[in-house]
Structure formats: structure tokens, C-alpha cells
């Protein structure tokens, strides 16, 4: 299975050049059955990365362009009255898919953003008093522009917390940028991608993630990270138990990719920033205030077991 995952990362690397660590984090998130938030400046490949993951996993997917006039019904669906039999028939929205690309999610109003809360947490949606299950597996890959840009609405913390990971792509290095500038258009290369995993293989990998052993000493380390975040004045509030579970699941998926029989401290360190940075806020006027900086401070402050 490790060979399949390495092949998927290699194929994705032909589209998103020079970003192997980012690609592995994104794949880790989906293997851990979590939702992924990609935050960065326009034009660095956020949507392309989301499309790449969808094609490599061979899943049915839909894309929603989030705009300020988007309504919850545009995401969930709507019931239409049929005069012939005097009944309402539900027309499912694009959320009824295995992988949903929520493009520029923070350009929609909070009301539209909230339409995804139940779907992301419960894998179901409720409309007109009826609850409908979503296809399995169900992933949300959302992209968002930095909050300081014009026309954005900040995601509420309850929405952010439903994303297992938040990653950044960043500018390419000089070599990767030369390949991008002199090569084919990335969107045309997307059409040449073939799925690296079947649905059965993906489900099997997700099951294997849950079976990766976590030793008591490693649980002590994760609890120490959680405790420090709750007691240090550098943080506005500490990490929740759900954040701790997210860190364990992410570390298990990373360990599986790395071929480890059990989760190692290095696996936790590799995924910590992507898993907890969007859940951390500064509690003081001094020092770093940005999430990644706070995650690095947390990592450096808690000794390894």
C-alpha cells in the first residue's frame, strides 16, 4: 500500500511541482477521513491541487464556486412542488457527492458557509425536516483566500474546527517555477491523470490508519501538548479533546504513509502545524500571533518523551 501512496504523490507532483510535503499532508488528511482546507494567495494552485486529489482518488466530485450571493439551497438542494401529484420532490444539491470542492469558501456569507456544518460533521444534511445521508466516503476540500483580502468573510471557529487540516502551498522555488513557466498548462495535464486508488483500496487504507498502534508514551506526549496549550498565557484558549483526536488520526495516517508500524514522535511533529494551527489563537500582545508560529512555539515548548 505504501507503494500506491508513493505513486499517488509522484503523479500529483507532476501537476503541483516542488511541493511534496504539501501533497503528503493533503493525502494524509484524506486517509484520516478528514476535511481539508487549503489557504493561500490567489494563483498559487489551490484549486488545481484540489482537482488533482479528486482525480487521483477516482472519486465522484462536484465543485461549488462560493460567492457572496450563494444560498444554502445552492449547496444542499431544494424541494420543488409538483402540481400533478400535489407533492414536493427534493432535488439534491452538489453536496451529494463523494468529494466536494468548495472553492473560495470564505467569499460566501456566514449563512451559506453554515450549510456545510452538518454535512462535514455528521455526513448528512437536513432539509424540510428530512435527514438525508451523504455518499460514503464524503470529503470536503475547501480553498480560501487570506482574510485580509477584499470580499472575504472569516470562517467561524466552529467551521474551522471541522477541518482536520489546514495547509498552505506557497510560492514555488526557482527550479519548480521554471518548470511551470516552460511546461504545459497544469489544467491540461490534469486531464491525463488516471486514478491511483480504487474506492476499495481507499477504504482499506482508511481502515489501516485506524489500526496503526499508538503507544502509551506517545499518548503522554500528545496530552502534554494539549495541557501546555491550555495552561500557557500565549494561547487565548487551549486545544480541545477533538483537536487531540485529530492530531492522533493525522499522525496515524502520516505513519502509514511513512511505512511505520506504530506512530512515532516524528509523525506527530510532521502533522502538528497543519492539524492545530487553525485552532490556535494568541492570548497575549507579545510574541507571535499567527497560527503556524503558535504551533511552532507549542512544538518547541513541549519536550519529546
Structural features:
single chain; 305 residues; alpha/beta; Rossmann fold; Helicase, Ruva Protein, domain 3; five-stranded parallel β-sheet; two-stranded antiparallel ribbon; 14 helices; globular
Protein topology:
Elements: H1 2-13, H2 20-31, E1 36-39, H3 46-57, E2 61-65, H4 72-76, E3 77-82, E4 87-92, E5 99-103, H5 110-113, H6 117-122, E6 124-127, E7 130-133, E8 139-144, H7 157-160, E9 165-167, H8 174-182, H9 186-190, H10 199-211, H11 216-231, H12 241-258, H13 265-276, H14 291-301
Parallel strand pairs: 1-8, 1-9, 2-5, 5-8
Antiparallel strand pairs: 3-4, 6-7
**Mean of the pLDDT scores?**
87
Number of helices: 14
Taking the sheet with the most strands, its summary is: 5 strands, parallel
- Strand percentage: 5-15%
Question: Rounded to an integer, what's the Rg over CA atoms?
Answer: 20 Å
In CATH, the topology of the largest domain is named Rossmann fold
CATH class of the largest domain: Alpha Beta
Order of helices and strands: HHEHEHEEEHHEEEHEHHHHHHH
Structure explained in plain terms:
- This protein is globular.
- The chain has helices spanning 2-13, 20-31, 46-57, 72-76, 110-113, 117-122, 157-160, 174-182, 186-190, 199-211, 216-231, 241-258, 265-276, 291-301, and strands at 36-39, 61-65, 77-82, 87-92, 99-103, 124-127, 130-133, 139-144, 165-167.
- It has two domains: 19-194, Rossmann fold (3-Layer(aba) Sandwich), CATH 3.40.50; 212-301, Magnesium chelatase subunit I, C-Terminal domain (Helicase, Ruva Protein, domain 3), CATH 1.10.8.
- Helix 11 crosses helix 12 (241-258).
- It has 14 helices and nine strands.
- The longest helix has 18 residues, at 241-258.
- The model is unreliable at 285-289 (pLDDT under 50).
- The strands form three sheets. The protein has a five-stranded parallel β-sheet with strand order 2-5-8-1-9. A two-stranded antiparallel sheet has the order 3-4. Strands 6-7 form a two-stranded antiparallel sheet.
- The protein has 305 residues and is α/β, with parallel strands linked by helices.
